[in-house]
Amino acid sequence: MDETLLALSLLTITGLTGIGARMLNLHIPMPLLQIAAGATAALAGLRVGLDNNLFLLLFIAPLLFVDAYRIPMREFGELRHIIAAMAIGLVLLSTLAGGYFLHWLLPTVSLAAAFALAGALSPTDAISVSGILRGGRVPPRLLYLLGGEALLNDASGLVCFKFAVAAATTGLFSLKAASANFVWVAAGGVLTGIAIGLLGSKLETYLLRRGYDDPPSHALLALMIPFAVYLAAEYIETSGILAVVAGGMTIRLSGVMNETQIETRMRATAIWDMVSFTLNGLVFLLLGLQLPHLLHEAKRILRSSGDLSLWSVLLAILGLQAVMTLIRLFWVTGSASLRQVVAHFRHRACVLPSWGEKLIMALAGTRGTITLAAILTLPSATDFPQRDLLITLAAGVIISSLLVASLLLPLAVRLLPAPSQMSTPQQELDDTRLALVDTALAVLKNETAKSQADPTSSTDSPELAHAVPLLLQEFQELHQTLDGKQPDPGSTRDLSVRNRRAEVAIRLRIIRAQRKTLRDLLHDRNINDETERVLGRQLDVHEQELINEAAALPHA
Q: Of 183, 240, 387, 507, which cross-links 233 as Cys (Cβ 3.0–4.6 Å)?
């Protein structure tokens, strides 16, 4: 019963943080609010033990799976070399440079233990950064790059951490063994994810082609896939993190969801949106719940150690944060220069980031859930005497990285070019919608031509003769609204956009009035609940379509 109440309390707090931030109009990143809420709950007496293996399975696996499924595959393919270099090369550099710096700053921390902490700090957390940058004028390419890096650098960071811990506890380290193990862990995880993803896609396709498309069952089975992938990969001692990423991408590329019913896709999207929001909130809430205990442990360490002081620990936290940021800036700048040189010799074009983009990429290296989960798996203080100190330092760097990102990233965004000087997804969206409208016009003109050529060719000719002109007029007006390259794109197009917005607004008012009528009919017992549910769902779908259309219309 206590565990049930605890789970309900955490879910309630997670929901209240989102509502509270919206009601109070707080311009604070949601992760920081949730960490603060967790710390407050801990001070109020809420205690939560954290099982790291269970934490990775229940929270990290589904979050990475859905991020991998939703990442734009075209941009990921274009950026694959840059992402791979950051996910492996930057992680190794961060582990080595961060470890040597910490050992130099705090000689009481052994070099192997310092490498362990730096390895745990090397994976980034793009979830918090996306919340800060989304909605601003940051190039989508930059967001895709940060998201792809965070998806892939977890495995390399955890491997570095694992071998550093082994070296610290046993005093033994083999570069050959570490390299071979890294290849097995990474390649085995990717292959496991691909294999299970393909198997799940084939099974889903088999069921769909035989008519077994039950939306609730398919949505539930889709929810179970990341857990199955992660457990299978961990069972054969490979990377469960890379496995769920590979599994999510494989299922996305298979296109199996496109063959399901509309209701199945809508339910699956709604479920994953809710799961993603809930798990993201719980992750940072759990981090906040650990803070009071970590601070208590830090005080105990300072009292029991004559070699450490509060100022030396704070200096180590701030120093690690600064060094990790400078390493990212160095890597981004150096790799961009190298790509420019290679492109010059190969006579190819090369897109180089501006200084504003380089600064954003450096500041966006926040630490979060993977760092916390890794550092808490350190052996007990008996086998690893510096355990509590490393946990304290890791928690401090996580908090400082989130604070630095929330304070400085909005300032760095101002260094970017004005929105009018950047290509945005809006143009691609408008061009694609215009292509779809052209397709509709082609179909309608073809129907008109067939009807005029042979009026008796179809039994539906009278109906077509009435319906086609109406649809043709509607799509021609929509074409005029979207086509920014027409001969007179000025007042005519602006008027068409305003007319379309007014039409959408009226349609929305009609739907909301219809929904009120539907509820009144239900209240007066003129219809039953099933009728209200079916018609209400249709109104909801139609309303959402209109809202999406209004958001996608060009600005008049």
A: 240
Closest among 251, 222, 248, 195 to 213, alpha carbons compared: 222
CB atoms within 10 A of CB 209: 10
Q: Which of 348, 328, 360, 330 is nearest to 140 (CA)?
A: 360
| Beta strand ranges found along 89-163 (DSSP E) | none
For 70-74, 259-263, 393-397, which range has the lowest pLDDT when averaged over its residues? 259-263
Backbone φ, ψ for residue 53 (5° rounding): -65, -40
Q: How far apart are CA 351 and CA 141, in angstroms?
A: 11
Rounded distance between C-alpha atoms, residue 98 and residue 89, angstroms: 14
Give the mean pLDDT of the chain.
81
Closest C-alpha among 434, 440, 504 to residue 472: 440
pLDDT at site 530: 77
Mean local confidence (pLDDT), 438-454: 77
Q: Which residues contact 334 (CB under 8 A, 6 or more apart)?
A: none
Q: What is d(CA 252, CA 148) in angstroms, rounded to the nearest whole number?
A: 15
Residue given tokens 């009601």 in the structure block:
23
What is the separation of C-alpha 434 from the centre of its chain, rounded to a whole number of angstroms?
29
Tell me the residue type at 416: L
- 38 vs 140: CA distance, rounded Å: 32
Determine the pLDDT at residue 227. Answer: 94
- pLDDT 10s digits, 65-105: 888 888 888 878 888 888 888 988 999 999 999 999 999 99
Q: Amino acid identity, residue 297?
A: E
Within the chain, how many helices (H) and strands (E) appear? Answer: 22, 0
